[in-house]
Amino acid sequence: MEQNLYQVKNISGRLKNREVTVTVPGSKSITNRALLLATLARGESLLTGALFSDDSRYFLKCIQSLGFETAVEEERCRIRVKGQDGAIPKREASLYVGSAGTAARFLTAFLGLSEGNWHFDASEQMKKRPMEPLLDNLTQLGAAISFEGQPGHFPFWMEGRKAAKDRICVNIDRSSQFLSALLISACLAPNGLRVDVEGSHGMAYVDMTVEMMREFGVVCEKGVLEGTGKNGRLFYEVRPGQHYRAMEYRIEPDLSAAAYFFALAAVLGVRVTVRDVTLHGKQGDVEFLRILEKMGAVVEQTPLGVAVTGPAGGRLKGIDVDMGACSDQAITLAAIAPYADGPVTISGIGHIRYQESDRLAAMETELRRMGIRCETASDRITIWPGTPQPASIKTYEDHRMAMGFALTGLAAPGIVIEDPGCCKKTFEGYFEVLEEVTGRLTGEKA
Question: What is the pTM of this model?
Answer without folding.
Answer: 0.92
